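Let's sit down with a protein and look at its sequence and fold side by side. Go ahead whenever you are ready, and we will take it from there.
>
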Amino acid sequence: MMKLVVLISGNGSNLQALIDAQQAGRLRGEIAAVISNRADAYGLQRASEAGIATRVIPAQDYADRAAYDIALGDVIEALGAELIVMAGFMRILTPEFVQRFAGHMLNIHPSLLPKYQGMNTHQRALAAGDAEHGTSVHFVTEELDGGPVILQAKVPVFAEDDAEILAERVQTQEHCIYPLVVNWFCCGRLALRDGQAWLDQQPLPAAGYASEADEGDLDGEAE
């Protein structure tokens, strides 16, 4: 079983989706630990209730981002993790950290990348009058929210939506596709090669798979 470390800063709803997938046998991997930069992150309680080790590494204990990322990386390596799963970890990682774990870091972002990198994605989609919005799972690179996209899920935007309602609709899709992609990696089906995402020995298009892909392409069951 591949060892995973999940990084969080808050509620941890995507962490819960991963825990549920692991408990249901839909994840060929073991969450070795959940690490947060905030001691009050509710996701830590989710992990504890599931019997998963937790660790808090507060940013204020370190002189700068570089020192923090070195310490964080050392903890991850000591755990023997083969995959780092970002699940609402609200810190910008240094290039050195990203290079240290290149090809072994996944993130989920609440937009149809490359649209709306950064924060406040739902409000930005509404302000732009978009007819559809969504979420993207991608490899982490040095560019913020700019790594190769693996899988996207789209949702409609309705006239009566506000940012909160739209966020809930997007989050429902996040909880479906993130465990799926993590399992692809755990099964050896997914890799980062020469700056591009590959699935089943084939390069993915620049926007990754869309949610309209047929069921066979999106088979996420552990083999």
